[in-house]
Amino acid sequence: MRSELIFQTPYWFIVFCLVAGAAYAFMLYQPAAAWGKKWNYALALLRGLTVGMICFLLLGPLVRKTETSVDKAKIVFAIDNSESVKGPGSAMMKQVANAVKDLESSGFEVSVQTLGKDSRSPVADSIRFDAKKTDLSEMLQTVKTNFEGRNLTDVILLSDGIVNQGISPAYNRFPFRVNTLAVGDTVPDLDIRIKDVISNRIAYLGNEFPVRAEIAANGLAGKSTTITLKQNGRVISSQQAMIDKPSFFKAVDFKASSSQKGVQHYTLELSGVAGETSPKNNRKDVYIDIIDGRQKILLMALAPHPDIKSIRSLIEANDNYELDIKILSISNTPVATAKPYDLIILHQIPNVLGMGNAQVRSFIESKTPLFFILGNQSAVQLANSLNRSLTINATNNQVDKVTARFNPAFQQLNFDPEQLKLLERLPPLSVPFGDYNISSGTETILFQKVGTLNTSKPLLVLNTNGGQKTAVLAGEGIWQWRQEEFAQTNKQEVVDNLFQKLIQVLSVREDKRKFRVYPVRSEFEAGEQVVFQTEIYNDIYEPIFGQEVKLDVTNEKGVTKQFTYTHSKENPRFNVSGLADGVYRFAASTSLRSGQEKVNGQFVISNADLELNNTTADFGMMRELASRSGGTFTTPAAFADFISKLKENRPADRLDSSEEMVEIIYMKWLFFLLVLLLGAEWGLRKYHGGY
């Protein structure tokens, strides 16, 4: 670290500081003192130094600190700890542990990354090959994020190349070399399995619905199997399949129906075949939610627009919604009143052409929740009078280009503020230029950001108070947000999650229950804790705490587990663990002043072991990944030579410098020095009888 003193005033002003200190000491200690000249000079010196230092600090000098650090060359071992790698991966852990020590002794900084967690040395003792799915792209993306801006030169990926979640990492670009260490067997096992099951997530009560099972077999030509569809152990249908070639694939279709509402458990099973390696992948469970009907949403737009497709995609991702689309410039016939909607999305309606404006008034009279999306053709003044949430005093039909900034004070929906920072990097929306005002009871979800300037103008608002719920998005261009998010993250989660939650809170029917217990998700993975959220309200719907809650959880066999817990403000959630896969129903109860309150529901624990679908190593993908990133493809036999070459070709360490400018007056040690000088002077004066 190097420090340098910088003056904001001419440096010769220090002379005035010294003169001020000397003058102050001279005037204070000029009279002859009882303690003698020697001590008089010492005390004058202490006072003069103190006053001179204070005057010097008033000049506002700066200290420039320059710190230089060495960023060592870094290597990350990315270990695919999925079940399919267990045998060959466990055998390699001793070599990997030795390689970590060897590279660290050569000056590298080495760390280890696994699927879904960061595993530190000792490597051989800490890594368990028990992950139920493999997403190599996500693991390498995590490495990229964790070491962004750091001197990471190489990643060594130990894997069998089997990817069953996310996209293939060979299609991504990384700012480091990915060296692939291929393990596993590329020769297919003698096996027959249910590769996949295709079915609807929801179905309607009493209707038939399809269930398709995809069967794959290797090396079992000439043999046969029976595939059976069961519901709660009861056989619904069976079909025979003849394996007619060494590499066999067949899709078997079933028809099923249910007369019971709720989540129904179906099982597809293959009869065993002599010679197959493992019967574990001969069974798959399917959970289908049988419902009476879906929530109905109408998307009414002035004209064709890319936003319409984007809104349709994010709505139809939820099977509980039924979406109708009406484009007025193509068909301006009135909306059928016989079909009541739970939510109406109005894209550029009301508009300057007058299309659909009268229908909006009828929606308002019927108290149907409305979501206004403004655009270039919107009649802003008319929209002000209809939406009752946001008023825009537009200026001469001018538009502005703004990006979005999440309002951290918005708490009505559970958003992650860190994730929503992505919105600030997305393309701007076109919004009316003018003054923005929100009505009472309206909350701002997104603010407008003009360039780098944060404004208090609302971009997206929500009002759930009163008799009608409304939301207003002041601009068009959602389709650009979804495209840009995918370009940056290879996903469309943040934007979709934002509008899906907004649509959910608008369309959901108001729940007036004072006691609510519900699982935070409808489906959990095997081995995962089931988390129940508890909410209890008084007569004016204020949250209250301290009540004892009884919770009964019943599995498909009728076996019930009973739990009791106290609802508290600090922990409004209750976790249940140790449940096997299947459909569960729960009932909760508590006592309030109004009497006994009860609530019930259901959830699913699924055991989707994707690792059993494919156990044949894919070295081709590993070679392609290494080639695209400039890395090296290697095998366990050549691993020691590869580590030796890494040590021989060790890249240079990187020097990083950081500079900081601070006012010297903020240095704490100066305060204590002044206190010490003044304290010493005061103590000596008192000791010698001075005042």
What does the model show?
This protein is of the alpha/beta class. The longest helix is centred in the N-terminal third of the chain and has 22 residues, at 37-58. The radius of gyration is 35 Å and the shape is globular. The mean pLDDT is 86. This is VWA domain-containing protein. It comes from Dyadobacter chenwenxiniae. The chain crosses the membrane at residues 12-29, 41-63, 664-684. Keywords: Membrane, Transmembrane, Transmembrane helix.
Label the structural class.
alpha/beta
Number of DSSP helical runs: 14
- Tell me the major beta sheet: 9 strands, mixed
| Shape verdict | globular
Question: What's the N-to-C terminus distance?
Answer: 45 Å
- How are the strands ordered across the major sheet? 16-15-17-18-23-22-21-19-20
- Give the assembly state of these chains: single chain
The low-confidence parts are none
- Strand fraction equals 35-45%
Helix content: 10-25%
Mean pLDDT across residues: 86
Rg from C-alpha positions? 35 Å
In short:
With 691 residues, the protein is of the alpha/beta class.
Keywords:
alpha/beta; nine-stranded mixed beta sheet; globular
